[in-house]
Amino acid sequence: MRDRNEVRAGNHHAGHLYRENAWNRGSINHAVLFIRAARRTIAARRFTHQAEKSANAPVITPAPATTNERLRSHFLRVSKVIAHRAIAT
Question: Would the pTM of this model clear 0.70, i.e. be above it?
């Protein structure tokens, strides 16, 4: 019979996250929360900085994105989703 950790994990790859003695799980969760908070802070700063700059600047329409830029942004979006799902499980 498989032990409780394997059953809960669903596969042998994720089993280490579900052990009762996973000493670093709290650290991982805190690190994730810290990174998210830091990103929010950076985004807020960037927003206020942009608002200050655009108060006087004329409106400029951005050039259409090239194929490489679209592929890069798509790849980044997909990899973020995969990473967040891996953290959530």
Answer: no
